[in-house]
Design a protein that fits this description.
- With 226 residues, this protein is an alpha+beta fold.
- The chain has a single domain, classed as Jelly Rolls.
- 19% of the residues lie in helices and 35% in strands.
- Helix 1 packs antiparallel against helix 2.
- About 21% of the residues have low confidence.
Length: 226
């Protein structure tokens, strides 16, 4: 009986953990189906200049202070236009020293987002959060170096992401420190709540589910014994 109770408890925990996993996915193409009908910010209409924080259509971009960029900021500029996965004239750049971390705050929840990313020689970590600051999903962007092939990165299947962060890792040629020169262009986001997935159950619901499994299993065991 004790062994059966232990097995049923482990089953309930396993089901709870499997349900609680976030339903996110990485995006590696601007043509990903998750971005159909999305809004694209190409930065061609500006405003051009250097900012700590600046609002665009539906999203506010903020440069975050870090060890090697204490007075962080970003530029909407035309440096290396058309190269390093930039398109058109204007894009976001850190000019090789301005930021190691960007934050994107969405006016309303999004189910997917992504962007062209260029010139990186270290890896960068992309994370998405909901309005309770719970991590929904994350992905690591490997260095793209001198590529101009339209390298695109993002996340989809998000349960109403309201914030995202892009943070440089101190690896690659920057393992001993320094700011990685990078570009962001064609920032794309799709408004939405659960990203086409069932909402993750609340903790109370998960407890009830686990309890229910235990009751069902115990009843079956008793019938077999009888």
């Amino acid at each position: 009986m004790k062994n059966l109770s232990k097995i049923l408890s482990l089953m309930a925990i396993a089901v709870t953990l499997s349900i609680a996993v976030a339903h996110g996915a990485s995006i590696t193409s601007a043509s990903d189906p998750a971005l159909i009908g999305a809004t694209v910010l190409d930065f061609e209409s500006g405003p051009a200049g250097t900012f700590i924080s600046q609002s665009f259509e539906g999203v506010t971009v903020t440069a975050v202070n870090s060890m090697y960029a204490i007075d962080a900021r970003f530029s909407v500029a035309n440096d290396y236009a058309g190269s390093y996965n930039t398109r058109g004239v204007y894009h976001i750049s850190n000019m090789g020293s301005q930021f190691q971390s960007l934050e994107f705050d969405f006016v309303s929840g999004v189910s997917a987002f992504g962007f062209l990313f260029g010139a990186s020689d270290s890896s960068w970590i992309l994370r998405a959060y909901d309005n309770s600051d719970m991590l929904l999903d994350s992905t690591t962007i490997a260095p793209v170096s001198g590529s101009n092939a339209g390298d695109f990165f993002g996340l989809s299947g998000l349960a109403g992401a309201t914030r995202a962060t892009l943070i440089q890792s101190q690896d690659g040629i920057y393992a001993s420190g320094g700011v990685d020169y990078v570009f962001v262009d064609n920032f794309t986001y799709k408004a939405g709540g659960d990203g086409g997935h069932d909402p993750i159950p609340e903790p109370a619901s998960l407890i009830l589910l686990g309890t229910g499994l235990g009751v069902i299993g115990l009843a079956a065991w008793r019938r077999k014994k009888a």
